[in-house]
């Protein structure tokens, strides 16, 4: 009970923060627009996707990449709170030990919901659309949000170990860029050289992207799906990753939080 | 009645033992009393408060705070203490009200209880008008008041204030002192750290002086001053007067070393015999035609105590502190 109340109180504080510091929100919303437009118009003509048009192909990839970057906000938020002594304040209160992290990761879902909304609207403007049923589309969005949520616990854990905004930003670039590029996000897998292609097939980002394309109906009818099991069953494979990441990193982060007093 | 705070043998090292922040510190705050922990920057004051408020786990040592074991029941301790210090900040994006309301909810109050308590504290600390503005725009004094208000949300029995008035202008400091005295009058037990001797003198029932993580003196302000001997005479010479002449004329009256401040032409020395001696000092100077613009008798301040105990003033200077840090590392 106290866990839920405490988490809600912390989440509410973070939401107030989103409203009071709208600069962050502007960045959160502008960068996805920029990505959609850049890729659609710069690469759109250069990259050929057999049987489909690139904009249809592209949007799911951009979604996957953007929600991954959204997790960076969790890390940055926690690092800031550590530096400013807010976490120390929370730790001096009789709170549930997981409430601060659960409240933060929970409230950061709002960032991702907003950026998905903005990207979808921008996508519609450049000629993308959803060709599936409403439940399927909803499932697509939920899958993206769940993946982002699980990944935000990784960033929370990192931020508790290295509470520096600069380090978090750089580290997340180093990790997220390769992960989201060595995948089927922006180019068809067949174009990648051998070893990279294997990595990309089993990369969870590829699965998320593939699953989202399926659920949005963005795959052309009769499109060839790679033989890898991960891409034959992208929804299941994505869910497995979501569970694995969450089950490992949520307890790790909470444990780390509890041990902050031992530094 | 048991003590509000009673800890023994606190040891804390940082950087894998290289920096010894605390080297076996004992602290006791009797129920309803104020303990002043006095020391220069880097003496270990903040580390001590962090341990007492469960934010840090000591390498060694144990104790009881507000009736609960510090290491075994930290959450029980947290329910019964209030903490204010720069290392445990209020959130500057939130308004004063939102901060206090949030703390109330996290102490387990209902929404309406937390609202009532937040408004009550804002009024008590003269922040009602500013209550709906983000704390970011507060003046230093307002922010410190909000900080202290945050420590009081759950009406704790034991309050820790870490350098509550550092950086405040004199007027804000006096205001905060008044509030702190009121808290104690209402029955709270309080541990207060400060670099300001005047502050400890005003507020604390007893004082522990620490330096390099160790207690170097303890007692009431009066006891500490008595340790240092009797009154001192303080003289300021008229510009142009020879300090050397004055010094040799006064040697017969001084019961200890004569301290000279060349720049301000000031002399300071301990004497026996109070005002009688002061009169004799002035007569002697007059007979030697040495003019003064100011002369007076004063009791030793905690500053004098500190200087004689540590060899440097309470404010310390940077070079001395860095040397101290080096020493600690070698140990």
- Mean pLDDT of chain B, to the nearest integer, reads 85
Beta-strand proportion of chain B: 15-25%
Oligomer: heterodimer
Q: Provide the succession of SSEs of chain A.
A: HHHHHHHHHHH
Characterization of the model:
The complex is a heterodimer of chains A (263) and B (331). Chain A is mostly helical. Chain A is built from 11 helices and no strands. In chain B, the strands form 3 sheets. In chain B, strands 6-7-8-3-9-10 form a 6-stranded mixed β-sheet, with helices on both faces. Chain B has a 4-stranded antiparallel β-sheet with strand order 2-1-4-5. In chain B, strands 12-13-11-14 form a 4-stranded antiparallel β-sheet, covered by helices on one side. In chain B, helix 3 (96-106) crosses helix 4. Chains A and B meet through helix 1 and helix 4 of A and helix 2 and helix 3 of B.
Provide a compact summary of the structure.
The complex is a heterodimer of chains A (263) and B (331). Chain A has 263 residues and is mostly helical.
Can you lay out the helices and strands and say which pair or pack?
The complex is a heterodimer of chains A (263) and B (331).
Chain A: H1 2-20, H2 22-43, H3 54-83, H4 86-91, H5 99-126, H6 134-161, H7 165-181, H8 194-202, H9 204-216, H10 229-232, H11 234-258
Chain B: E1 5-14, E2 19-29, E3 34-38, H1 45-52, E4 60-65, E5 68-69, H2 74-79, E6 81-84, H3 96-106, H4 111-124, H5 140-152, E7 158-162, H6 170-185, E8 189-194, H7 197-203, E9 206-211, E10 214-219, H8 221-227, E11 232-237, H9 243-250, E12 259-261, E13 266-270, H10 274-287, E14 292-298, H11 302-310, H12 318-330
Parallel strand pairs in B: 3-8, 3-9, 6-7, 7-8
Antiparallel strand pairs in B: 1-2, 1-4, 4-5, 9-10, 11-13, 11-14, 12-13
Helix pairs in contact in B: 3-4
